[in-house]
Each structure stands twice: as structure tokens, then as C-alpha cells.
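# step 3/5: fold
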Amino acid sequence: MSTDLRIKALELAHIPGEPREMCVARAEAYLAFLLGSSADVATPSTKTASAKKDADKPKAEEPKAETVEVADQPETETTSEEAPAVDYSEVKRCILGISSKLGRDVATKLLGEFGVEKGPDLKPADYAAFVAKAEPMLEGK
């Protein structure tokens, strides 16, 4: 191994005020990386130095598991407000009807009022309102 390469690795690994063992361990890891070594990068001196460093740190307590009781809640029935009363097939029928009867621009403008450009982008919660606006247009009102 080239002496110049080892010196360069030591220069890169040096951090002022850090123990010499840590610097050497880091330099060895740099060399192993640069040389493409498949060996474990953590050498015994690395492990020893990191063990010393970890020994100085106060150990944090592991969080204790808490048990939380969940009260039984009665199942609620799905109301008509939660489930859309209109499905996408109605929306699609309205879009196609308006497009063929009044023009694509009119259908696009109506979709734009709901903040979308295409029917599939319409939120299920908006289906009923969309159909409610589209039906009078289809009937010519």
C-alpha cells in the first residue's frame, strides 16, 4: 500500500481535539473504502474507540409500553350523507349528454366549477351536486 495514500487518509480523517485512536480508525476505514476492500470496515480499534465514547454517554431509558383500553363503541349505520347517493355512472351520463347536446366546452366549464378538468377527477362527495347542476342543462332549462 502506498505511503502517500495512507498519509492522505490520515489527513482526511484528522479532527482536531479528537483522540488519536478515532483518527486512525477513520483513516483505516477510508483506506478500506478507497481500496475497495470487502472486509469489515469497522476495525477493532474503531470498535474500541466507539465503545469508549458510548461508555461516557448516559444511557437513555427505554420507553415503557403503555396499554390503552378502547371502549366498545356501537357500530354506526351508514347514513345517506356519508355514502354518495349518486354514483359515477350518473356523472358520466351527464358529462356525455352535455358534451353531445351543448358542446364539450360547456361540459368542461361545468367540471371547472367543481375544480376539476375531467369527470374521473371529480370527488365522490361532489357527484350529487354535479348531477343536480347538470340535469337542468340536459333538460334545456
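# step 4/5: annotate
The chain is about 55% helix and 0% strand.
# step 5/5: archive (pending)
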